[in-house]
Amino acid sequence: MDVRSERTLRSLQAALLALAKERPLEAITVSDIVAQADVNRSTFYQHYSDKETLLADALDAATEDAGARLPDIDAPLEEPPAALRHYLEHLEENAELYRRVLGPGGSAAVAARLRGRIHSIVLEAVARVGAPGFEGLPLDVVAAGIAGSALSVIEAWLARDPLPSADTATEWVWRVLIGPVGVWMPRADDDPKERACQNR
Predict the structure, then answer these.
(1) Which residues fall within 8 angstroms of residue 28, CB to CB, at 6 or more apart?
(2) Could you list the pLDDT tens digit for every one of the 200 residues in the chain?
(3) According to the 3-state scheme, what is the secondary structure of 167-193?
(4) What whole-number distance in Å separates Cα of residue 91 and Cα of residue 2?
(5) How many degrees, rounded to 5, is the angle at CA 121 between CA 119 and CA 126?
(6) Taking a C-beta distance cutoff of 8 angstroms, is the pair 8, 47 a contact?
(7) For residue 198, what pLDDT is reported?
(8) Helices 139-159 and 95-102 sit at what angle, rounded to 10 degrees?
(9) Rounded to the nearest 5 degrees, what angle is found at the Cα of 80, between the Cα atoms of 157 and 57?
């Protein structure tokens, strides 16, 4: 992508983020976005078919700019990874915006993208270490269930007033991510047979 196109995308993304902090997505029009970005309407449609996709891209870019990302789970862990806490701190700092886009009347595209990201991470982890607690279920079904639950925890956290800390949210999300399938994340010194007996 050339520099000019990249600048235009960033301008559109920044414009929608600024507007979304002030009012619900359904109250924002393409005309509002292009006026805020100081581009013409045809420029918007050269890059985006709708404002929801623009918002999903804008939040992805903001997350990347903040150095916040959902962590890959590439090994058994006994505590939440720092990257998860950092990601939820980013949500905490932008709580009002995320409340708008993930709450009722929010953006289905943003929720779907976030759910997809969590699903991909969980699916890779389950495929790597197995899921004895869910024998007989397809791995993508297990991952979908855990991802949906984790996203629901994030939404429930953001809906609280006053908002609990990102540390609290990290603990909640982590327990949902590994709680139902703790057996698929054994410690290195665990005996799998003994652990299986304990979980009967």
Answers:
(1) 16, 19, 20, 51
(2) 688 889 999 999 999 999 998 898 889 999 999 999 999 999 999 999 999 999 999 988 888 877 667 777 666 667 788 888 888 998 999 899 999 888 888 889 988 988 888 888 888 877 776 666 777 889 889 889 888 998 999 999 999 999 999 999 999 998 887 765 554 444 445 444 444 444 34
(3) HHHHHHHHHHHHCCCHHHCCCCCCCHH
(4) 30
(5) 90
(6) yes
(7) 41
(8) 120
(9) 60
Q: What is the CATH number of domain 3-50?
A: 1.10.10.60
What global pTM score does this model have? 0.75
Name the residue ranges covered by the structural domains of the chain: 3-50, 66-198
CA angle 88, 169, 98 (to 5 degrees): 50
Rounded to 5 degrees, what angle do the CA atoms 71, 75, 78 make? Answer: 85
Alpha helices by DSSP H, the chain:
3-20, 30-37, 41-47, 51-65, 82-93, 95-102, 108-129, 139-159, 166-178, 192-198
DSSP 165: P
Q: Which two tokens stand for residue 77?
A: 């862990």
